Amino acid sequence: MMTSQPILIVIKKLNNNDGGTLEPENFTIIVDGNDPDPSSFPGSKEGVNVTIGAGKYSVDETEVEGYKKKRSSGCKGKI
């Protein structure tokens, strides 16, 4: 019997209420954990499926000038 790896769905939400014009794709997302694939990718409002092994994980993004990071509670945890 084949078991499939867990999938983490990573969605980049963006607030441009203060006059910003960037889109989710302008942010690089980084996933840390047990062999995430992909581990780095452009943000997506539709979501990116990341296969990841069991254990702890965290999701972060590179800083972009003029934008403040705000991570949801689902950006770290254990699978």
- Helix-strand category: mainly beta
Q: Which term fits the overall shape? A: elongated
- Main sheet makeup: 4 strands, antiparallel
> How many strands appear in the DSSP assignment?
6
Helix content: under 10%
Mean pLDDT: 93
**Beta-strand level of the residues, as a percent range?**
25-35%
Uncertain spans: none
In angstroms, what is the radius of gyration? 14 Å
End-to-end gap: 21 Å
What does this protein structure show overall?
It is a single chain. Helices cover 0% and strands 32% of the residues. With 79 residues, it is an all-beta fold. The strands form two sheets. The chain has a four-stranded antiparallel β-sheet, with no helix packed on it. A two-stranded antiparallel ribbon has the order 1-4. A hairpin with a 7-residue loop joins strand 2 and strand 3. The model has no long low-confidence stretch (mean pLDDT 93).
Topology:
Layout (H helix, E strand, L loop, with lengths): L6 E4 L17 E5 L7 E3 L5 E4 L4 E6 L14 E3 L1
Antiparallel strand pairs: 1-4, 2-3, 2-5, 5-6
Give the gist of this structure:
This protein has 79 residues and is an all-beta fold.
List keywords for this structure.
two-stranded antiparallel sheet, mainly beta, 79 residues
